[in-house]
Amino acid sequence: MTRPKTRHTGSLLFEGLVLLAAIWSFGPSPKGKTTEADAFEVNDEHLHLTNYVQEGTNIRDFLNIMGSKVGRAAIFGIPLQQQWAFGNTGNFAPTYYLQTDAPLYYYSFTDAVIAMAYRSLPPDQQARLDPMITGFNPADMYAADHVRRVLTTFPGVFTGIGEFTIHKEFVSAKVAGETASLTNRALDRLLDFAGDVGLIALLHNDIDLPFPKPDQEPYQLVQLRELFLRHPRTTIIWAHIGLGRVVRPVKDQIALIDRALSNPALPNLYVDLSWDETAKYIVASPETVRHTADLINRHPDRFLFGTDEVAPKDQTAYLKTYRLYEPLFAQLTPAASELVRKGNYARLFDAARRKVRAWEKVNIKDTTQ
Ligand SMILES: [Zn+2]
């Protein structure tokens, strides 16, 4: 286990630095002076390094794109591959799920691609990234076994699982095979395993269906709540507060999230403010900004910023969503803003790193890996 040990030392050193950074950033800083830790503006807990046809940004280029703006990022591929079906689109090669009627299928090799890219980096660059396992079918009882296998094959690399999707507008219905569901025991098995290991779970599940009828029951809400309650030991980050391109906020959504985050039975639930499609609802008007800011100021340790960019080409494209949220950040208290942009990421992902490395030490016997 020489390699994991080396990494462990590296990660301890890094955690020490993070602790120092936290002390610096929360401590009094003389007016007008920028401390070293202030230099990074934000951490990104939601970044797809590759797209729906498994092509993407070289990991070294991505670190340059993070530059001096983004301190750390949770990185993953996309679990689904868009099939290029000649019978459907002919010579047109689709790169996005909306460009063809051909199905999507689970592409597990994505995890190996991410792991190998991460391992090609020197320790100081690895310390800025948290790779996530995502190439599993959440409707398969064997999903948890895939995660175990990836951890065993690539020890010292992964911090969480996701982003993986159960209900997503335009996507779920296109996935080949059994449709994923919040009530599937395979998902329970997966989240139980994530809890055992200490892996963070980043889950995409729309809060409602697209274009609901006025009195249509948002049944996913009930199922989602029950799912969160069934897995109190698993840290779950709910992506995009359940919003989508056309999945709009449900009635009283802010009150509903407020209740969920105030529920002592749901200490494991966190919310991700990623995707420009989510930002468009939040910054839609001065009222939506104010109500969202009030909610975050009430629960500052439960929200994380993410970009949800897919294979970004440059820093301007990469930080598009971050810029969209400027009006929101402006209305957060300084402490809440710091937590949402950086502090919550550091706390959750550092804890997960420690737990996963400890699990690997005990559970991976084959030292030839
Ligand atoms: Zn995403």
Description:
The protein is α/β, with parallel strands linked by helices and 369 residues long. It is built from 15 helices and eleven strands. The chain has helices at 2-26, 59-66, 86-89, 109-119, 123-126, 143-153, 185-197, 219-230, 253-262, 276-282, 286-298, 315-318, 320-324, 326-330, 334-363; strands at residues 42-48, 70-76, 80-82, 104-106, 129-133, 160-165, 200-204, 236-238, 269-272, 303-304, 309-310. The strands form two sheets. A nine-stranded parallel β-sheet has the order 10-9-8-7-6-5-2-1-11, sandwiched between helices. The longest helix has 30 residues, at 334-363. The radius of gyration is 20 Å and the shape is globular. It starts with a helix and ends in a 6-residue tail after the last helix. The model is unreliable at 1-36 (pLDDT under 50). The structure holds zinc ion.
Task: Please give a handful of descriptors for the protein shown.
369 residues, alpha/beta, nine-stranded parallel beta sheet, two-stranded antiparallel sheet, 11 strands, 44% helix, binds zinc ion
Short summary:
The chain has about 375 residues and is of the alpha/beta class. It has helices spanning about 1-25, 60-65, 85-90, 110-120, 125, 145-155, 185-195, 220-230, 255-260, 275-280, 285-300, 315-320, 320-325, 325-330, 335-365, and strands spanning about 40-50, 70-75, 80, 105, 130-135, 160-165, 200-205, 235-240, 270, 305, 310. It is globular and about 50 Å long.
Bound molecules: zinc ion
**Strand order of the biggest β-sheet:** 10-9-8-7-6-5-2-1-11
What's the rounded overall pLDDT mean?
88
Number of DSSP E strands:
11
Instruction: Indicate the structural class.
Output: alpha/beta
Uncertain spans:
1-36
Largest sheet: 9 strands, parallel
Helix residue percentage:
40-55%
Overall morphology: globular
Distance between termini?
8 Å
Radius of gyration from the alpha-carbon trace, in angstroms: 20 Å
Secondary-structure element order, N to C = HEHEEHEHHEHEHEHEHEHHEEHHHH
Number of helices: 15
Strand percentage lies at 5-15%
